[in-house]
Specification:
721 residues; alpha+beta; 14-stranded mixed sheet; seven-stranded parallel sheet; 21% helix
Length: 721
């Protein structure tokens, strides 16, 4: 990727605009100083929502060559023309709107007019729009001021860092990669498949941030764009489109900014009740193996909400490990007596969950009597095509597949009917709606839209299709689907997010700590209901170094997951190389404890989910959201979180750790397991024991939620008196 410096405009001001002036529109005021702009609420003129100094707008012509490799994207941007000499010619205001007009002079001598429109949006903030007169110009560069000590949060799911100040962050939906900077696995993945990723790669980035100075900005563009936060004095935004709509939010707290943003992009409804009373256990292997493993789990007293059988379509072995036949019909050879198994589980109150994605693979080599959906889609013209008019052949690991063209109404209806009859018709109550991030830029969607503009929105369209399916069968509040790829408006479309394919390691590159960071940043971005694969997913066997899941990692990850919206396990891509919850009596006993803990939290989570539906506030929250001014919330890489506003959780994030030092916000906090009360002093930490099965958990002294949880755990035999 060719990394450019931020483009700064040079402002040329006519003498008539050298005098400072104020312009009111709705509840807001734009102050012009003669060399810069400052946007404030009229009721709080000292607060700067957005401000510029000198030039703030440039444009240009660029050409981006974007390569796709197994869902990872590589952008080579070449600038052909730059227009950075900016004039400001007029201010025109009426009612709720204020329009700024001017010109941009380009390096080739041509001139384009521009308009910047500000429109009041009540207490929520201001809508901003930029339009250029010259249709040749396909790049916008916007700059505004920031404070040197300002911290930047959000941007969707960001897995390597919580505070993005000082970084250059592209917003491009893609595979997160394997390793993401952890060595030697990242290098190995890059050498073999260009699949290592880096700290910027994310399934669900969002062009939105909120800051420690209580400023927030949301670009509504679906184009590739880059936020440049390296300059301590300014924010740079590069948009690969010739126009922009955006929002500048107004709020007096981090929570108010989250409420404002989610009122625009949508909020997540409470999960079905059945998901909250036990674990969703990921199993594979066919009818008899599932029965055998369920017997072990039952004997250990693990409360189960569901069994997730991703291989309902059949299992195939690839260079990556155990994968699936991407053909969304039940494999009767792999799951004989399916109806009997499904009925057994239903009679016990255990739901079954499936797997689907928008790809289809040819199953000719598999044999058998299953319906070949790839052939059907190809014959009916429902697969995404390339420039030559032929369906794109997209490589996954060691097999290729076609992508259903979700821009085609006919293809959408067909795929929904497939999922309705072939999946829901088998009695499933939920499913993983996987992928959605890999639309190549060279695709030619049936709608005629540019793939470059559809790419980031494609996961929204995939979630929308699944949402429509739920609504059409009357499954609201009863059916669950969870997505990993997402974009700005995913919160209003999906029923649950999950964090994707973390490596079975501990760290912040691609492991347990990265899952926590993704959960926190995503929560600030609207993904209020989110969770991860307990234990991680990506498992690597390599002569140089193996990445296999240890029992300790699985146990610590399950403890962490018990305090999220769903407790769901995954065997991983190489199940035999990973520790599993059913492997030993000790593993089963620990997992039973985690599932009981998760179930005990159900009443509290129900309250939080209702709050999320009404306000957009996430279940899992950074301490900064609740205690923005307390030193405990200032960690650059948070190692603890709040579940709602009543429980502070510090999961163990390293191997071999039995004690933790935890920063608590000022006040009196009760340790869940020992009932010891700690009086927290700002800027200090307390040390507590954190043996396996007891992550560090605290609640404010006098908290009804904390005391109720304590009683529930005692009733379940998980703690003493």
């Amino acid at each position: 990727m060719w990394k450019q410096r931020a483009v700064l405009a040079e402002l040329v001001v006519p003498p008539a605009f050298a005098v400072p002036r104020d312009f009111d529109f709705g509840d807001y005021r734009l102050a012009w100083s003669g060399h810069g702009l400052a946007l404030s609420p009229k009721g709080n003129p000292g607060k700067r929502l957005w401000a510029t100094e000198g030039g703030f707008l440039a444009a240009g012509i660029g050409e981006a060559r974007v390569e796709e490799h197994r869902g990872s994207l590589f952008v080579d941007e070449r600038r052909k023309l730059l227009c950075r000499e900016q004039s400001l010619d007029s201010f025109q205001g009426a009612g709720q709107r204020l329009v700024l007009r001017g010109h941009l002079r380009c390096a080739d001598g041509t001139v384009s007019g521009y308009a910047l429109v500000l429109e009041a949006d009540g207490g929520r903030g201001v809508r901003l729009a930029v339009a250029l007169d010259d249709p040749r110009l396909n790049r916008l560069y916007l700059n505004w001021q920031r404070d040197a000590d300002e911290r930047f949060f959000g941007f969707g799911e960001q897995f390597s860092a919580f505070d993005l100040a000082g970084r250059r962050l592209p917003i491009l939906v893609q595979e997160q990669g394997v390793g993401r900077g952890l060595q030697p696995i990242t290098l190995a993945a890059d050498l073999t498949a260009r699949a290592g990723g880096d700290w910027t790669s994310s399934y669900a980035p969002v062009p939105y941030f909120l800051t420690s100075k209580l400023r927030a900005f949301f670009s509504e563009s679906s184009a590739y764009q880059v936020f440049d936060l390296r300059d301590p004095a300014r924010v740079g935004l590069e948009v690969h489109e010739g126009n922009l709509t955006a929002r500048i939010y107004n709020g007096d707290s981090p929570a108010a900014l989250v409420r404002a943003h989610t009122s625009v992009v949508g909020r997540m409804a409470p999960l079905p009740d059945w998901t909250q009373h036990g674990a969703i256990l990921g199993l594979q292997g066919g009818t008899e193996r599932v029965r055998e493993l369920l017997a072990r789990v039952d004997a250990a007293g693990v409360p189960l909400a569901g069994v997730w059988l991703q291989d309902w379509v059949g299992q195939r072995s690839t260079t990556f490990g155990k994968q699936l036949w991407w053909n969304w019909t039940l494999d009767p050879r792999h799951y004989p007596q399916w109806q009997a198994l499904s009925a057994e589980l239903e009679a016990r109150g255990i739901r079954t969950l499936a797997y689907a994605n928008p790809f289809l693979a040819d199953i000719t080599e598999k044999g058998g009597e299953q319906r070949n959906l790839f052939r059907e889609a190809r014959e009916r013209g429902f697969l995404m095509k390339g420039a030559d008019g032929a369906p794109l052949d997209l490589l996954n690991t060691s097999f290729s597949a076609g992508l259903v063209d979700l821009s085609s109404p006919e293809a959408r209806r067909w795929l929904k009917d497939v999922l309705r009859t072939e999946m829901l018709g088998q009695g499933f109550s939920g499913w993983m709606a996987d992928f959605g991030e890999a639309l190549p830029f060279e695709a030619r969607p049936a709608s005629g839209e540019e793939a470059a503009l559809l790419h980031n929105r494609f996961p929204e369209e995939w979630a929308r299709l699944n949402r429509e399916l739920v609504e059409e069968v009357g499954g609201e509040g009863e059916l669950l689907f969870f997505t990993r790829a997402g974009y700005s408006r995913s919160p209003g479309l999906t029923t649950s997010m999950w964090l994707g394919d973390q490596l079975v390691t501990w760290g912040a590159h691609d492991g347990l700590h990265s899952a926590l960071l993704g959960l926190l940043s995503g929560g600030l971005s609207g993904f209020a209901l989110n969770h991860g694969d307990a234990g991680g997913y990506t498992t690597i066997s390599n002569p140089l170094k193996d990445y296999h899941r240890s029992e300790e990692l699985l146990q610590r990850w399950a403890e962490f997951s018990a305090f999220t919206s769903l407790l769901r396990t995954h065997e991983g891509n190489r199940p035999a190389d990973n520790s599993q919850v059913y492997d030993s009596p000790a593993s089963l006993a620990h997992f039973a404890r985690c599932a009981q803990l998760f179930a005990a939290l159900a009443p509290y989570r129900k309250t939080l989910m209702e709050e999320a539906a009404g306000s957009g506030l996430p279940l899992v929250r950074p301490l900064w959201l609740q205690y923005p001014d307390d030193p405990a919330s200032q960690e650059l890489q948070p190692r603890s979180f709040m579940l709602g506003d009543q429980l502070l959780v510090a999961p163990v994030l390293e191997a071999g750790v039995g004690r933790l030092q935890v920063a608590l916000p000022a006040g009196s906090w009760v340790h869940l397991w020992s009932r010891t009360t700690y009086r927290a002093v700002p800027g200090t930490r307390i040390e507590v024991a954190a043996p396996i099965g007891q992550p560090a958990v605290f609640y404010p002294k006098g908290s009804a939620v904390g005391e109720a949880l304590r009683r529930a755990l005692r009733e379940r035999g998980l703690t003493g008196s």
